[in-house]
Amino acid sequence: MGAQVGLMTIRAESSIGQLSDIILTIPAPTPKITGDTGPPSIQPMGTLFEQGLLLTLDAFIILLMDRCDKQTDRMFARHANME
Prior knowledge:
Layout: E1 6-9, H1 15-19, E2 22-25, H2 47-67, H3 72-77
Parallel strand pairs: 1-2
């Protein structure tokens, strides 16, 4: 279809990484991968990756808001509450 694939991952050389057009590696340890996956952590499972992903995506949204001249209050008015 011509779409580009962007990936945020711990392991850029994964199978989906090989198909991606742009990759952002978030260094974080995980028990699923052997070898160096980033700084050590006492947090369980992939928690450090999830936290790193959250901060990265928040920063990405802030940059997009700035580039598109969008304000938080206008975005919040269109935000769906699924609770």
